[in-house]
Amino acid sequence: MAASDTISVLFSLPTSSILNTSTVIAINVFVTLLCACIVVGHLLEENRWANESITALLLGLVSGVVVLLLSNGQSSRILVFSEELFFIYLLPPIIFNAGFQVKKKQFFKNFSIILLFGVFGTIISFCLISLGAFLLFRRIGVKSLTLQDYLAVGAILSATDSVCTLQVLNQEETPFLYSVVFGEGVVNDATSIVLFNAVQSIDFSNIDTWTALKLLGTFLYLFFTSTILGIAMGLLSAYGIKTLYFGRHSTDREVAIMMLMAYLSYMLAELLSLSGILTVFFCGLVMSHYTWHNVTESSRITTKHAFATISFIAEIFIFLYVGMDALDIDKWKESSASAGTSVGISATLFALVLIGRAAFVFPLANISNCINRRDSDKIEFGQQFIIWWAGLMRGAVTIALSYNQFSASGGKESHERALMITSTMIVVVFSTVVFGSVTKPLIQAVQLRHVKSMTSDAADFASLEDLRLLFLENGEQSDNGNDQPAPKRSSFRLMMRYPTSTVHYFWRKFDDKFMRPVFGGRGFVPFVPSSPTGAADET
Amino acid sequence: MAASDTISVLFSLPTSSILNTSTVIAINVFVTLLCACIVVGHLLEENRWANESITALLLGLVSGVVVLLLSNGQSSRILVFSEELFFIYLLPPIIFNAGFQVKKKQFFKNFSIILLFGVFGTIISFCLISLGAFLLFRRIGVKSLTLQDYLAVGAILSATDSVCTLQVLNQEETPFLYSVVFGEGVVNDATSIVLFNAVQSIDFSNIDTWTALKLLGTFLYLFFTSTILGIAMGLLSAYGIKTLYFGRHSTDREVAIMMLMAYLSYMLAELLSLSGILTVFFCGLVMSHYTWHNVTESSRITTKHAFATISFIAEIFIFLYVGMDALDIDKWKESSASAGTSVGISATLFALVLIGRAAFVFPLANISNCINRRDSDKIEFGQQFIIWWAGLMRGAVTIALSYNQFSASGGKESHERALMITSTMIVVVFSTVVFGSVTKPLIQAVQLRHVKSMTSDAADFASLEDLRLLFLENGEQSDNGNDQPAPKRSSFRLMMRYPTSTVHYFWRKFDDKFMRPVFGGRGFVPFVPSSPTGAADET
C-alpha cells in the first residue's frame, strides 16, 4: 500500500477505483491465512495433536486479536459471519465431497445404526439439553428467555459438526467409526434443522397432541423427499453424461456438468424447502457409483481431486471464519455479563452437550447390540466411547443457527440474547480445540485401529464370501434339477442370519441387471480405456 | 414450489427459513441455464456458427424476456450486474487459465507485436473513438455529455473482449493469430483500465504538457510492477511447493495451494492498485513453466483440467449475465430515447469501434512487416484482416466500465447517461453475436489454417534447429583452440539475424542453469515417475 500511495501521489492519479477496498483487503487476508493454514497443516502432518481445523481456528483467533488491537478495540471482524455464505457456498461442497468419497459398503452396512443415532439420538439430545437449560439457566441468572428460546437452544446444540469429524477420524484406519459418526452427522443435520425450524414456527400458546405427530410427519417428508431428490439428480447426471458422451469433445464439459448438477441438487432442495445437506450427500453417493464411471479417465482423476480440494478449502475457511468470529466484540459488549455468568452459562451448555450425547449413544448402542446376534456386528464399549466423544464437537451449523435465533438486537432483553451467542461461541471453540486435538491420540490409546477395525473388516469380507458361495451352491443345486422351494427357503434363512449382507447381495444383482445398463457404472460404459480403480486407489 | 407449499400448509410448519428465497431462486435459474448452455454447446460442437458464448448470450436474452413477461414488464433481471462479482470472482480464473494454458513459445515470439498492438493500438483507438463521439454525438441529439464523458467512451469502447477471443480462435489451429489477438487483449486490458482511471481523475480545467507524461509514467509503472508481481508469486509458489513437497502427504494441498496462490496474486495486485489481469496472467505463465512440474502426476492432471473447467464455467456465466443484463428495463425506461436516437448512437459507436481498430491494426502490422526482414515473420493481409476482425468484440469489461461511468442516476441529464449504457449494451451484444458466429467460418474461408499456420510453425522450428547447430559449431570451433572472439562475433551476427530465436536460446540456457535448479520445472524435480508431457498432451 505504501509504495502505491507514494506513486499515486507522485503521479497524482489513482490507478484503480473500481473495486471496494475493504472487500479487497478482506479477501487478501483470508487467502493469505488459508495458505498459512495449509503450510502449517502440512508441516504438522506427523504431529498427532494438531490438524488443519485447529490450526485454522487458532489462526483465526489470533488474527481476530490483531484486528482488534489495530482497530483500538472497535472491531475484530474483517468479514461479518453470514449465514448465506456458509449455507450457500461453503457447506454444499463439503457434504457433497463426503458423499462422493464415502465408502458406500460400510455406510449402507451401518445404515440402521446411523438412522437410529441420527434421528432418535438427536431427539433425545434435544429434549435433554432444552430441559437442562430450562431448569439451570434461571439459577445462574438468565431469566428473560422464553420457552421457545430454551427449545431453540436444545436444537442449536444438538447439531453436531460433521466437518470436524471428517478431520479427526480416518476412513482408512477406522472405517466403522468413520461411517457411523459421519453418517450420523449427516442425518443429525437434517433432524436438528427440522427441529429448529419447528421450534421457530410452533405456536406455543396452542400445543396439542397433534404437534408431535405433525413434527414427525414433517421430518419423514423431509427425509424421504430430500433423499429421493438427491438420488434423482445423481441418476440424471449419470444418464445424461452416458447418453450425450461429453468426453467425445471436451473433458471440461464433463467436469463442469458434474459440478453444476451436484450444486443444483443442493440449491433445488433449498428451493423446495428440503434438507439440502441430505440431498447433496445422496447425490454425491449416486454420482460416485454411476456418473464417475461414465466419464473419461482424466475427468475421473480431476473430479476426484478437485472435489476433495474444494471441500478442503471450504473446511479450512469455515474454521478460520469461526475463529475470527469468536471475538465478535459487539456481541461481547452487548452481553455485558460478568465473567462468572458467562463461564457459568458456557459450562452448563457444555455439560448438557456431554450428558445429552451420553444419554443416547450408550443406550442405543446397547439396544443395537441386543438385536444383532453376530459378535462382529456388536459395538464394543471402546467404540461406543469414541462415538460419544467424536460427536461432541459443535461447529459452524451451531453458530449459524445461534445467530439466526438470537441476533435480533435491541429491547430490554438484548444483553441476555447476546450472551447466548457468546456462550455458544465458547462451546464451539472449546469443543473443537479440545476434542479435535485429543481424539486422534485417544483412538490410538484405545488401540481400536489395530484390533477392531481389521477384524471387523475381515469378518465382513469372510461372511460375504461365504454368502456368495452359499448362493452359488443353492443356484447349482436348483440347476441340477433338485427341489425348487429349497433356494427360496434358504435365501430367507440367510436373510434372517445375515440381513445386511443379503440386502447387499440382492442390491448388487438388481444394480447389475437394471440400473447399470441404463445409468452406467463400473464396467458398464462403452469406453473403458483403463481400470478406474487404478486411478481411484492412487490418492 | 407448489408441492412444498402444499406440504407446508398441511403440516402448518415452514421447513426452512434460513436462506433468502430470492437468492436461492436466482442461483437455481443460473445453474440450470449454465447446464443448458453446456449441453447445447456440446450438441452444437460440430456447428461452426455457434459456440457456448453465443448460446449463453442468447439464452440469457431469452430468460431476460421471460422474466420481463413474468414480472409484467417491471424487471428483467434476476441478479443485478455487479462489478465486484465480475472483477473479483469471474475474471481472475479466466485470465489465469489463459496464462496457464497459453503456448509460451508462440507468446514470447510475438511479444513485440503484442506490445505494439496492446499499447499503441489501444491509445490510437481511444483517441479516434473519443474524437468521433465528440464530433458526431451532438448531431444525433446527445448534448449533455462532458469532455470527460467523451474520453471515457473512448476508453470504454477500446477495451476488447479477451474472453470471447478465446472461444472463436483455436490455439492449435491458428497459433500465431491466437497468441497475437489474445496477448493483445491482455495488454489492452491494462491499457484501457489505465486510460479509464486516468480519464476519471484528471482535472480537465487544468491540463498541461505534463499530463501526457504522467499518464505514460503511470502506464509504465503499472505494466512493470504488475508483471513483476505476477512472476514473483509464480516463482514463490514453485519454490514453496518444491521445497515443502506437499505431495508427500496430500495431493489436495498441492492443488489448493496452487489455486490460492494464483488468486492471491490477482487480489494482491488489486490491493496495490495494479492491473490484476496482467499479474494473474504472468502468474499463470510462470506456474505452468515451473510449479506445474513440481507437483505429483495426479495434481498435474487435476490442475490442468480443473483450472480449464472453472474458467469455462466463468466464461459462460459472464455471457449469460450480459445477455440477461442487456434487457435492463430500468435503464431503457430512463433513457426514454426514440428508437432512432438509440440506433443512431449504437451504430455510431459501432462504426467508431470498426474504424478505431482498423486505424491501428493495418498500419502497425505493416510497420512491423517493414522491420522484420524474414518472410515467415511477416503478417499477411489475410492475417491482418483476422486480427482486426477478431478484436472487434466487446464484452463484460466494457459493460462494467460503462456502468461505472454512467450509472449515477438522477439529475436532468440522467436520460442521456442511461442512453449511453443501453447503447453500449447493444454494441456488446451485437458484436459478440455477429463477430462471434462469423469468425470461425471466416477463418476457414480465408483458408489461413492450412496454409499459413503450418508453414509458420515449420519455419520457426527449422530456424531454431539451424540456430542450435550454428551455436554448437561455434562451440566446437572454440574448443578446438581457434580464435576466441569468433563465437562472440558470430552470436552477435545471429542475434541480429534471428533476434527472437536467439533470445529464446539464451533464455533456455539461463533457465536451465539458474532458474530450474531453484524453482523446479520439467526434468528438475527429484520425483519424476512418468513423463508430464504424456498427461499434458492428452486433452
Characterise this structure.
The structure is a homodimer of 539-residue chains. Chain A has 539 residues and is mostly helical. Chain A has a domain at 83-453: Na+/H+ antiporter like fold (Up-down Bundle), CATH 1.20.1530.20. Chain A has 22 helices and no strands. In chain A, helix 7 packs antiparallel against helix 9 (175-201). At the A-B interface, helix 1, helix 2, helix 4, helix 9 and helix 10 of A face helix 1, helix 2, helix 4, helix 9 and helix 10 of B.
CATH class of one domain in chain A equals Mainly Alpha
CATH topology of one domain in chain A: Na+/H+ antiporter like fold
Briefly note the structural class of the backbone of chain A.
Answer: mainly alpha
Q: How much beta of chain A, percentage-wise?
A: under 5%
Which residues of chain A form runs of ≥5 with pLDDT under 50? 1-16, 449-463, 473-487, 527-539
Oligomer: homodimer
Main beta sheet strand tally, sense and closure of chain A:
none
Number of helices of chain A: 22
Radius of gyration of chain A: 26 Å
Helical fraction of chain A: over 70%
Mean pLDDT of chain A: 77
Largest protein-protein interface: A-B, 90 and 89 residues
Distance between the termini of chain A: 41 Å
Give the strand tally of chain A: 0
Order of helices and strands of chain A: HHHHHHHHHHHHHHHHHHHHHH
What general outline of chain A do the C-alpha atoms trace?
globular
Q: How does CATH name the architecture of one domain in chain A?
A: Up-down Bundle
